[in-house]
């Protein structure tokens, strides 16, 4: 390739876009409406949004876990304290859902161990089987036979009857 370039041979062609020439001194109404919209609507909204984003970055709030305070059990509520009854019922429902999830997680771990171990599952997954048996028995002792419409009061009565049967068996 030659060292000296012939710049005249590689001229840039002229553009085909015409140059806008103002033929009037009247301002364009579109520019006026765009700037009016920007100042009236867009600027305040942008200001408020930026202010909210600055405030949120200062005060980080992680809302994906709602933490409830523990409330007294139904056996600790005073007679006729309906608000305490309601809170104890809600607490019992949350505890039941947590216990259901615990049983489900242990069951999934057991299934994963069985899948992983294959024919050796009985000797290699013995700890998981024992843990699942304990968790399932505890769940069944507390919530079994309550049915779909079980509530804190029937669960408390079930536990009371079970304790009375254990006392009779001990005597």
Automatic annotation (TrEMBL):
<keyword id="KW-0496">Mitochondrion</keyword>
<comment type="similarity">
    <text>Belongs to the complex I NDUFB10 subunit family.</text>
</comment>
<dbReference type="GO" id="GO:0005743">
    <property type="term" value="C:mitochondrial inner membrane"/>
</dbReference>
<dbReference type="InterPro" id="IPR019377">
    <property type="entry name" value="NADH_UbQ_OxRdtase_su10"/>
</dbReference>
<keyword id="KW-0999">Mitochondrion inner membrane</keyword>
<keyword id="KW-0813">Transport</keyword>
<keyword id="KW-0472">Membrane</keyword>
<protein>
    <recommendedName>
        <fullName>NADH dehydrogenase [ubiquinone] 1 beta subcomplex subunit 10</fullName>
    </recommendedName>
</protein>
<dbReference type="Pfam" id="PF10249">
    <property type="entry name" value="NDUFB10"/>
</dbReference>
<dbReference type="GO" id="GO:0045271">
    <property type="term" value="C:respiratory chain complex I"/>
</dbReference>
<keyword id="KW-0679">Respiratory chain</keyword>
<keyword id="KW-0249">Electron transport</keyword>
<comment type="function">
    <text>Accessory subunit that is involved in the functional assembly of the mitochondrial respiratory chain complex I. Complex I has an NADH dehydrogenase activity with ubiquinone as an immediate electron acceptor and mediates the transfer of electrons from NADH to the respiratory chain.</text>
</comment>
<dbReference type="InterPro" id="IPR039993">
    <property type="entry name" value="NDUFB10"/>
</dbReference>
């Amino acid at each position: 390739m030659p060292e000296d370039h012939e710049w005249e041979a590689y001229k840039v062609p002229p553009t085909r876009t015409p140059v806008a020439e103002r033929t009037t001194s009247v301002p364009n109404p579109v520019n006026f409406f765009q700037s009016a919209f920007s100042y009236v609507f867009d600027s305040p909204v942008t200001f408020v949004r930026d202010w909210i984003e600055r405030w949120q970055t200062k005060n980080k709030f992680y809302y994906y876990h709602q933490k409830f305070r523990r409330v007294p059990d139904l056996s600790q509520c005073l007679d006729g304290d309906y608000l305490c009854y309601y809170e104890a019922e809600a607490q019992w429902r949350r505890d039941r859902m947590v216990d259901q999830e615990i049983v489900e997680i242990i069951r999934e771990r057991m299934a994963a161990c069985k899948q992983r171990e294959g024919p050796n599952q009985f000797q290699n997954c013995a700890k998981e089987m024992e843990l699942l048996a304990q968790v399932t028995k505890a769940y069944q002792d507390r919530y079994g036979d309550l049915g779909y419409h079980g509530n804190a009061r029937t669960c408390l009565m079930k536990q009371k009857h079970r304790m009375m049967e254990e006392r009779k068996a001990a005597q």
